[in-house]
Every structure is written in structure tokens, then in C-alpha cells.
Amino acid sequence: MTPWSQDRAFVAGHRGLLGSAIVRALANGNALDPLVRTRDELDLMDQRAVHTFFRENKPGTVFFAAAKVGGIVANNSYRWDFLYQNMVIEANVLGAALENGIERVVFFGSSCIYPRLAPQPISEDDLLTGTLEYTNEPYAIAKIAGLKLVEAAGAQFGKRWLSLMPTNLYGQNDNFDLETSHVLPALIRKFHEAAERHRAGDDAVVKLWGSGSVKREFLHVDDAALAAISLLDSGATGLYNVGYGSDLTIKELATLIAKIVDYPGEIEWDSSKPDGTPRKLLDSKKIRATGWAPSIDLEDGIRRTYDWYRSTLAVPAGKAG
Q1: Domain 8-173+218-246+280-296 CATH superfamily
Q2: Which of 193, 198, 196, 166 is nearest to 177 (CA)?
Q3: Which one of 79, 93, 153, 287 is most buried, by most CB atoms within 10 A?
Q4: What is the pLDDT of residues 185-244, one digit of tens each?
Q5: From the candidates 139, 240, 244, 263, which is the catalytic residue?
Q6: Do 172 and 22 form a contact (C-beta atoms < 8 A)?
Q7: 91: which residues sit within 8 A by CB, 6+ positions away?
């Protein structure tokens, strides 16, 4: 039993990729009871509603996984939305947590908080040492503001809150919308649909953005959820990177996904489109020193994700999850 095992934990963003993984992890052998609300039940953009919720429900722990998220196209196209909405949500939730005396908060950021040309692998100390990648700068600035609020709560009020910066996450409940998704689920959908066309006799190629030469690190979301629970259980505080430990080029990722979905056709790369940050491999030595390590192999994790995606295609829109 953990010291907080009899508490309820508010999982903000429980329907999203990371939030849903935290709920699954809590339900799998953990005594902590998840407290969740849909957007219709609690609008995190509404400061009064958020403070009322905390005051009336008194959660002992908060897993802050709620955010407006998206891939390179969405980030670069809706810059105001990504900056403004995320900063408002962070101020509302963290402000309510502070006002109501919440002692255990896990805030989730993103590896995009680090400079575009940060040394590789990127350590926690590289924060704010260089220029951010322009295409996702608004989201990165919002996430930096959130982790600085967590840091300030410790410095000014003695809160032992925790910030986790996961690498690129994927898995069950990911977003597969081609306009707003991240690269891995977008590739799964593109190659799946192309494989279906090939089976129907259409030899159209898969066309992908960028050169394919940039490198990315991917971690299954269930591993990230277990990392959060493990660190919270240990009483850790501060900032921790959460990475898989190795990366691969987007071309290598595309080739792997094409194999998994059994796509036999060609792949074309449009190098006139932006690549984004050249590389974002996290230095995860700090969290590894606590005893946590990822358990899901990348290829196995992608296969699981693809199986889940295919299962949603047989379910009416809005019913999968």
C-alpha cells in the first residue's frame, strides 16, 4: 500500500492518450481511485468551475494530463489556440490545486520544451538554454509555463509537486486524425488505408511530409503512465524526462509501420515540407536511477496500437475507446 493509496486522484484529460493510460494503470493493481470528468461535466477553461470542482471533491492527488495537443500541422496553424488554451487550463488546474492544498500533483509536459538544437541526448538541465522549434513554439511555451508553475509552487509554498516530460507517446486512444495527429498514429492510418487500397487493386503511393531524415524517440503510453505512478509513489519531486532510450529516423519508422500493416507499395517524401526539430532524444538517466524502465518494445507497441486502431474501425464513430 502506498502512502496515498486511500486517496482519490483527479485525472485531468482522462479520455486522451495519456490520461486514459493513467486510469488503466490505476485500475490494474493500484488502490488509488480515479476521479474523472468529461469536458461537458467540467470545462477546464472555466476558472470558477474548476475551483468549485476542487473545493467540492477534494482530490488528494492530481494527474494533469489535459492539454490541447496536435501534430506539426495543427501546432503551426493554430498558434494562438495552442498557447492560450494550454496556459489557461494550466493556470486554472494548478491554481485550484494550490488553493485547495493538494500535496500530490503530477504535471505532464513534452519533450518539445527543449531547445531545437539541444545537445543529444537532452537532459533536464538543457531547459531554456536555446531557441525553441518554431513550428511547435506556442505549445512548448505553454508547457514550460506549466512546469515553472509547478516549480514555483515548491519554491514559494513548499509543494513537492512533480513534472514529467515524456518523449513522443503512442498507444491506445491515440488521435488518428490526419489533420491534428502526431507522426506515429498518422503513419499508421496512412499506411493502413494505402494497404487497403492496394488490396483493392489501387497502386497509389504513400506521400509523406519532409525528408524523413529527422530522428524521433517513441514511448508506449502505458510505460509513461507506470512511470508517473512509480515516481509519485516514491515521493520524488522536480523535473524528470521519461524516454524510451533510443530513437530512429522517420524513414525507419515509416518502413517499420509499412511492414506491420503489410503495405507493399512505394513511399514518396516531400522535402519541401518542414521536418521540425532535427532530433529529440531524451536523457532519461535520472528516472532510470529510480528503478523505472520501459517494458514495451517499439515494434510490439506499434503492433498493439495498430490492432487497437483496426478494432475502432468496426465501431460506430464516437463509440471506440
Answers
A1: NAD(P)-binding Rossmann-like Domain (3.40.50.720)
A2: 193
A3: 93
A4: 999 999 999 999 999 988 879 999 899 999 999 999 999 999 999 999 899 999 999 999
A5: 139
A6: no
A7: 47, 149
pLDDT for 103-161, tens place per residue? Answer: 999 999 999 999 999 999 999 999 999 999 998 899 999 999 999 999 999 999 999 99
pLDDT in tens, 61-78: 999 999 998 877 888 889
Peptide bond into 294 cis (omega under 30): no
CA distance 107 to 105: 6
At residue 215, what are phi and psi to the nearest 5 degrees? -110, 145
Domain locations in the chain as residue ranges: 8-173+218-246+280-296
Active site residue 139: yes
Q: What are the backbone dihedrals phi and psi of residue 146, each rounded to the nearest 5 degrees, phi first?
A: -65, -45
Facing residues of 104 across strands? Answer: 61
DSSP 204: P
DSSP conformation letters of 59-123: -SEEEE-------HHHHHH-HHHHHHHHHHHHHHHHHHHHHTT--EEEEE--GGGS-TT--SSBP
Phi, psi for residue 122 in degrees, rounded to 5 = -90, 125
pTM value is 0.90
Of the pLDDT bands very low, low, confident and very high (cuts 50, 70, 90), residue 2 is very low
* Cβ-contact 210, 254 below 8 angstroms: no
Q: What is the pLDDT of residues 30-47, one digit of tens each?
A: 667 899 999 999 999 999
Grid-cell match 519554491, residue found: 155
- CB contact set of 121 (below 8 Å; sequence gap of 6+): 243, 281, 282, 283, 284
What's the rounded Cα separation, in Å, for the pair 109 and 144?
Answer: 8
- Minimal CA–CA distance to 13: which of 31, 36, 30? 36
